[in-house]
């Protein structure tokens, strides 16, 4: 299977799954399609020569963040009334405007892809985990440190919100 | 000797299924032995055909989907769990020449990715059954598996740092002089505990604790769909055993005997250890399980990383 074909296939799966995410009325079904879209994205990364990014995409997004989403949806346990309300929102008058705008964006993207140097062709070099690590802790050191600040701040605030209220130590 | 890839794939698949099926029987026999009773010993010599009897029973049961269940998700859940476990075996190097993708340069990460996806099987089974017990089991499973995945990942970093690679083949080669269980003892213990929690086996089988939740997330499942959860659990035990063998016990390495035999001996020993743990340890309370993880295993695995890093830098003469 040539690289171009597989990239196209994974891209199509990702787009179709994302469209299903928008149009599903049941939140859990929408989330499952989103997981499929993320998996297709991971396959895309892998076939473009970035296996490390692909695995992180599955571990972090599909394996952790989406599980938390599913977890929360399970906890609130939305029933039939929510589903019918959700269905009533998916009407032509609601989706027509955004669709036109999205179609415009799509035309721009196709135009740009057709005229730029974005068409890479089959000369793909694989970037292994070592290369990713070297560049993360080399030229991109500052970004990594900033991201770690942000995560630490998130951790501290989560700890603050999750503390036991009115409980004597 | 170069074996063609399709044969490797088919034989590995058959072997995993065989090990998973036979370990259901071995577990019952061993539990019987530990508890001073015979266990299943009627069907065939030493009760060996009990597996066949169980399989026939499961296949011939009515395959029933409850009318209140979310049908597509209900059908999807056992398949996801089963596929994820089977795919994990793809990156395990069984011998130097016998593995499907043993030298994948992100092999260990692939195992983690598949473990992350296996969470969906229990969570979705719990949700789609539309049953309070199943939902509670599914929620417990999600929280337990996500938390223990964190410690599992951190405990493995020591191995990755020492071997300098994510490829399981390279990790085994790096252990040719000394098994990682000695320098990475803390990491090995944390990985073992997290592995038990990840496969939700006793003593960490709170998602299916039968005295409080019926059967937990698979309460509504019957027939072969239940059988798939069951097989996935035992394949998961074999998977964790194979991983511990590869990462900490030197994989196929060992004197005199052929590599395959060494691998098999180590895996079977660890599977029996899992069964012994089931017979020996009581089940903790759910909050005890979570606080044990976050308050003991997380600091221990972080200390392990810091120590390993310091020693590696010291050895490199930095």
TrEMBL record, chain A:
It catalyses: a quinone + NADH + 5 H(+)(in) = a quinol + NAD(+) + 4 H(+)(out). GO terms for cellular component: plasma membrane. It is found in: Cell membrane. InterPro entries: NADH_UbQ/plastoQ_OxRdtase_su6, Nuo/plastoQ_OxRdtase_6_NuoJ. The keyword Cell membrane applies. Keywords: Cell membrane, Membrane, NAD, Quinone, Translocase, Transmembrane, Transmembrane helix. Its EC number is 7.1.1.-. The chain crosses the membrane at residues 6-23, 30-52, 58-78, 99-116, 136-159. It comes from the Bacteria. It is a multi-pass membrane protein. It is an enzyme of class 7 (translocase). Its main location: membrane. It holds the Pfam family Oxidored_q3. GO terms for molecular function: NADH dehydrogenase (ubiquinone) activity; quinone binding. Belongs to the complex I subunit 6 family. Composed of 13 different subunits. Subunits NuoA, H, J, K, L, M, N constitute the membrane sector of the complex. NDH-1 shuttles electrons from NADH, via FMN and iron-sulfur (Fe-S) centers, to quinones in the respiratory chain. Couples the redox reaction to proton translocation (for every two electrons transferred, four hydrogen ions are translocated across the cytoplasmic membrane), and thus conserves the redox energy in a proton gradient. This is NADH-quinone oxidoreductase subunit J.
TrEMBL record, chain B:
GO terms for biological process: aerobic respiration. It is a multi-pass membrane protein. It is an enzyme of class 7 (translocase). It is found in: Cell membrane; Membrane. GO terms for cellular component: plasma membrane. Its EC number is 7.1.1.-. The keyword Cell membrane applies. It catalyses: a quinone + NADH + 5 H(+)(in) = a quinol + NAD(+) + 4 H(+)(out). One of its GO terms (molecular function) is NADH dehydrogenase activity. Pfam families: NADHdh. NDH-1 is composed of 14 different subunits. Subunits NuoA, H, J, K, L, M, N constitute the membrane sector of the complex. This is NADH-quinone oxidoreductase subunit H. It comes from Tanticharoenia sakaeratensis NBRC 103193.
